């Protein structure tokens, strides 16, 4: 196994925590397998070089080398239609045996299409396990009723996975990674137009999912009102008619661009979490301790979501005007 590539997702020109966690896991793999670990970094501007620049950060989180894929048109949003050709070029120059994406909105667009272009296997929303001398890729399927588990190196060709963040990323050392610059080829289609549409929910956000009882809608609205924030709902709730469709937070719906998101009774589907921006702090309440949202939330509480919403709204209302 020669190369492991980790796709680095940027937010405000900084690597997202999920990308750095993926780099940590890639370091474990590369060390055990004797592989070279590359950080694959597409960017529109060349980064500066100092103690806190992104190259130094990627080095401290485990990268042996950084593939700097540079072109002025490689700014956000990172989509396959804009970034795909450049990433394929980089993968041809540094052929990966394994390409890891952080599980994110970017990965949902880039990873499967890049896997197809590379004739690679694709496994979304996965985890890596180490058992003896074997590495395994696992993911939950059929609404988490089953776990799919397969050897990491079973296939004869490359594998692309999107990796669920399980913990905070850790710095691993002070070694400086080598930098390989790829002058990318970008040929955007004249038939494609990308237009920014404001579907953003800002301020404190309270979200309700299928884990809320049908009588919990009033509690959600009350809680959002007491917090001085906004309310969103999961696709399940909107599809069932218990919340208006315009409140749906999903890949093609509302965006949660808030510093704080209180997710009540939301399982954490990929489409829903794609609407939550990387900088948003997620506080999850769910009575299922295995709910996927707990793998991405900064804080979690295993409890009844409806009871929690009602009690929290009551306490905040009683303390209104004081320190919340």
Radius of gyration using CA atoms only = 21 Å
Spatial arrangement of strands, main beta sheet = 9-8-7-10-6-1-4-5-11
Q: Report the uncertain regions.
A: none
User: What is the CATH third-level topology name of the largest domain?
Assistant: Rossmann fold
Q: How many independent structural domains?
A: 2
What is the mean predicted local confidence, pLDDT?
Answer: 85
Q: What about the largest sheet?
A: 9 strands, mixed
CATH class descriptor name of the largest domain: Alpha Beta
The CATH superfamily of the largest domain turns out to be HUPs
Helix content: 25-40%
| Distance between the amino and carboxyl termini | 54 Å
Kindly estimate the percentage of residues that lie in beta strands according to DSSP: 25-35%
CATH architecture call of the largest domain? 3-Layer(aba) Sandwich
Number of helices: 8
Give, in order, the helices and strands: EEEHEHEHEHEEEEEEEHEHEEHEEH
């Amino acid at each position: 196994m020669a190369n492991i590539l980790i796709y680095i997702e940027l937010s405000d020109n900084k690597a997202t925590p999920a990308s750095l966690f993926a780099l940590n896991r890639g370091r474990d793999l590369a060390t055990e397998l004797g592989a070279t670990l590359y950080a694959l970094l597409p960017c529109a501007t060349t980064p500066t070089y100092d103690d806190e620049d992104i190259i130094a950060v990627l080095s401290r989180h485990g990268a042996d080398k950084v593939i700097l894929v540079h072109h002025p048109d490689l700014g956000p949003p990172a989509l396959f239609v804009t970034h795909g050709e450049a990433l394929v070029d980089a993968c041809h120059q540094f052929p990966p045996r394994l390409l890891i994406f952080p599980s994110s909105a970017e990965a949902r667009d880039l990873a499967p299409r890049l896997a197809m272009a590379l004739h690679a296997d694709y496994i979304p929303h996965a985890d890596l396990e180490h058992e003896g001398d074997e590495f395994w890729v696992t993911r939950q399927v059929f609404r988490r009723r089953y776990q799919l588990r397969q050897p990491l190196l079973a296939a004869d060709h490359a594998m692309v996975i999107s990796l669920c963040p399980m913990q905070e990323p850790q710095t691993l050392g002070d070694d400086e990674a080598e930098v390989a610059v790829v002058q990318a080829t970008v040929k955007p289609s004249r038939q494609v137009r990308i237009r920014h549409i404001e579907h953003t929910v800002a301020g404190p956000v309270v979200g309700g999912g299928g884990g809320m009882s049908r009588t919990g809608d009033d509690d959600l609205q009350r809680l959002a009102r007491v917090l001085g924030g906004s309310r969103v709902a999961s696709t399940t709730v909107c599809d069932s008619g218990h919340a208006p469709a315009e409140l749906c937070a999903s890949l093609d719906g509302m965006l949660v661009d808030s510093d704080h998101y209180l997710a009540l009774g939301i399982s954490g589907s990929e489409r829903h979490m794609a609407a939550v921006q990387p900088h948003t702090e997620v506080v999850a309440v769910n009575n299922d301790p295995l709910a996927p949202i707990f793998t991405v939330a900064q804080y979690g509480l295993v409890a009844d979501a409806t009871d929690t919403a009602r009690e929290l709204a009551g306490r905040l209302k009683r303390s209104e005007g004081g320190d919340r």
